[in-house]
Structures are given as structure tokens and as C-alpha cells.
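Form 12-C: Joint structure prediction
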Amino acid sequence: MSRETMTRTERVDAAIRLEKPDRVPVVPLLSAEAAGTLSGATMAQVSNDSQILFNSILKVFDDYGGWDAMHGGVWRPIHVQATGTHPMKIRIPGVDLPDDYVFQLVEEPIMQLEDYDKICQMGFDNFYYDDYLWRISSLTQDSLSDALEDVMIWGMKFLPEMAKRDVGMWVAATGMHPFFHLSLMRSLITFTEDLYYRPEIVEKTLKRMTADLIPKQIAMAKALGHNRWLLTEERASAYTYPLSVFERFWWPYTQEIVEAFWSEGIVTVFHIDTPWDKNLPYFKRLPKGSYVVSLDSTTDIFAAKQLLRGHGAIYGDVSASLLTIGSPADVEAYVKRLIDEVGDDGGFILGQGCNLPSNIKPENFRAMLDTCKTYEFSKK
Amino acid sequence: MSQELAMALVELNRDKAMELVRSRAEKGEDPLGILAECRDGMTIVGERFQAGDYYLAELLLSGEIFKAAIAFLEPYLAKVLPAKPLGKVVLATVRGDIHDLGKNILSVLLKAQGFEVHDLGVDVAPAKIVETVKEVQPGFVGFSALITTSFPAMKETAQMLVEAGLRDKVKLMVGGGVTTPALKDYVGADFQTIDATAGVSYCLQNVEGR
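Section 2 - Result
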């Protein structure tokens, strides 16, 4: 049996460059909830106590023998509101949900029609922090400062622990696609009405938000010294909208964003949930190697590989359902298939679909990691 | 017979559809006939969705028009004998999950086809579902999920239906973006889908007397 010949970072970087590493890298997105489950902490603890969440993440990494890049970090529910990552009302275990529930987002049309003009005039960040945040959150100015400081403090504490373990971050900066951001703030139905009945104001706002996002996130990625950033979109695929909507309201902004980052040497890692089968051909218009698509198991990852082979890297897609109710043998079989058919010539990073679920079976998580780390070597 | 109203709904022409509903109701036309034409429109939308010509967006928007039409027609419908529902469906997002988007879409589509829908909401305890099934005696029970945390409670509810002697009397459906065929087996359900229109088709195919 052969052995590993690359460091974790070399392995991940090679896959991103569409090369074939010594083996397929495995990079699970360790949510706070899964970290809690796998380390024995309650959902309330990991949702409300940064120290416990920090300890949980490191414990899971150590207990399961580690993996190739750290995806996720000390992000508690209040952090996602404070940073604007999820601009929605939230329900937090131990606060307004039972201790054993997972943190959940509430879909409500909080953003009003007139707010489109406000965003265009004020810019997104000013709108968010001067106006919108206070409609969705119990944060005060003081507790907002504390929450933002908490994000930085725990991020800084995380780095030396990762260095000790010889593991790098999967991505540094993270952002929501402007289209997805608006959909979350307006709610899916109301935003869809806007797209069909009031398209001009949506278009104008997307332009402004894209112009705001690009310099901000490029500066963030550079400040963090990382050449990958995460762009999340869960609602723009041809499951939800026809390609005419995608072509008008999503693709041009996406192309502008990816090309701007790529011109700075930064790869865009798309976290794209729901079926993207009809949309993926558009990604071939992006510069080769400028992106990674992370699929959630509802897109046909095997067809995606045939389409994007040699052009863009693929991440995914052991489903939440399989990790929750499947057996270790089921997980092992699926991971082997992914490695054989999607990772055969490189350009593939193995992970879960979307996010590791909170009720993941520990034995399934171990099967996912161990199979990826050993399968290719066992064949040689 | 003109299908102008149905087509306004299919074309997502909200203003035209509502104007037609309003003017026809105010002229004294049978509200059940108006409702039937709205349903025809929803049926065409569902067919186009299943053919891949329409997307979730069209389901959502036509559903919103349908809901507005029903709301407008309500006082008119109250004056006529209630039409016998095609069947009864109990829907819930089961304990552990508070999301309801998919469930709400299915609810509107089922109502559009003439089903009586008892929507128990989100984060519903298994005992509450069983109690409602006893009371309502539906032909169908549907569980919706966006996240995996409600899977154990779905299974628990299905088992409680068995223990209460109710399981054989209903078709049990599970649906939502995170569901897979394996969940059907895990829960012991009869049907699984991530597509609300497929759920409606399943109910139509299995409704008693068809």
C-alpha cells in the first residue's frame, strides 16, 4: 500500500488547480451543531458559548484523525446575524428553542419594498447596520460590538491551533450572493414577486450590492492572506427559476464577481444548494480554475464532473440524509464511488452535501473520513 | 367555455386574474364555477412544472394568485353548499424543524385540486399529529422537512400511527429538499418526494373512488 506524499495544504491546493493530488482531499464543513453532536456538547452550549464551540471543533478534529482543511469555525447564531451572513430572524437553542434543537432561521419578508431604494442610496452595509439589523435581532449597539469582537477574538485563537495541527483554512472570507441576500431578506415568495412584477428595482439593487461586495470581500480575503473565498447561493438554480431569470438577475453579477476575484488571484468557492444541473453549463464561461462548485447532493455530481472536467473543481456531496440514516457501509460505498468517478483525474474535494447535519451518526462521519483517506492507497 | 381566468393564472397575470374573479363574482356567477376555473389554471401550472417548462417560481406565484382568489371568493362560497372535498390531507413539519415553505406550497396545490388540508404548522409533536389523524380521518398524512433533525420524530409518529391502528387507513408521505428514498424506508412511509407537484399527483392517484 502506498502512502501520503503531500501535506494537507498541498493536497487541497493541487485539487483546486485541477491537478491530481496523492489522494482526494477531504474537507467536511463542520457546523457548530455537528461539532456539538460529535463532541458531546448540547446544541444550546455550542450556540451560546464560544469557548465550548471552540473546544468542540478541535476535539472533533483530533478525535477523528483530522482532515485536509478547516471548513467552519467559531460561528455562533448571533455571529451570523451580527456579520450580516444570514440577514434573518433566528431561533437559538437554549434561548428561544429547547436545548436539543438546532439553530434555525425564520423566513419572513422583513425587508420592505422601499428598502430597495435605501440600499441603492446608502449601500448595503450602511443599510444593514443603520436600519435593517435592528428589525431582526435583539442585539444592541453594545452587544453588536461584542459579537463582532468575539468573531475576531476566536478567529485569532483558532489560527495557532490549526498551525499546531498543520491544517489550513478551506476559505477565509465568506459572503452571500446579492441575489440570495435579497431573497432571504424579502422572503422567497415576496422576492419572486419582485423579480416578476418589479424587475427594474431588483436589478438596480443587485448592481449596487455587487459593486459593494467586490472590493469589501477582496480586501477581506487579502487581509486574511487567503486565496479562496466562499460565495453562497441556495435559491437561484433552475429548480426555483427559469433560465431567463437566472440569465438576467444572477449570472451577470456572478461573472463580474468571479472575474474580479480571479484578477486578484482569488478562487471563488461556490456553495450552491438545490439542483444546478441546468445552470452548470454557464460556469464554463468563467476562467478555467477560477472557481469550485460545492454541490449539496441534489445536483447530479457525476454529470457535473463530465461537464466541468478540467475546467472547474468540484466539492461534495455525501448527503445529509445518508450521514444521518445510512450505515457506515452505505457511506463507504458512496465515498468510493465519488473518488472513482469524480476524483479520478483530480480537481475534486470530498465533503458533505451542504453542511454536516446535527444528528450525524459518528460512525458515518468516521467512515466518510477514513474511506477518503485510505481508499486510493489501498488500490495501489 | 372561456378559460380566460385559468389562463390569466397560468400566465401569472395577477391583476387580470383578480379582476376576472371580482367581476364574475359580482355579476352573480356561481362561485364554485369560478373556483373550478382557478383550479384548472393551477392544474396547467402543475403540468408545466412536471414537464420542466415551469419552475418553483411559477408554482409560488400562481399559488399566491390562487390564495388571493379564494380569499376574495370566501363570502360568496359561504352562501353555497360546500362542495365535498376530493379527500383530506393532514400536513405537518414535525418536531425539530420550524421550516414551512415546502409544506405551504404543497398545501396550496392540494387545495387547488379540491383537497381539504389540515395544516398543523411547524415543530409539531407526534402525539398532536396522531390526535388530529384520529379526529379528521384523512386519507393522507404528509411530513415536510428542510433539515434532518425531524427524521427521528417522523419515524416516531409513523410508529405511533401503527400503534393507534391508524397507519393502514392513511397514505403516509414525506417530502422536502433534504429527503431521499432512504428516508421513506427509515420512516416507513408510502411515498417520498422533493417535488410538491409529485405529492399532489400521488394524492390524486391514490384518492379513494378514483
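Section 3 - Comments
Chain B touches chain A at residues 12, 14, 54-58, 60-61, 64, 96-101, 147-149, 151-152, 177-180, 182-183, 186, 194 (CB under 8 Å). The mean pLDDT of chain B is 92.
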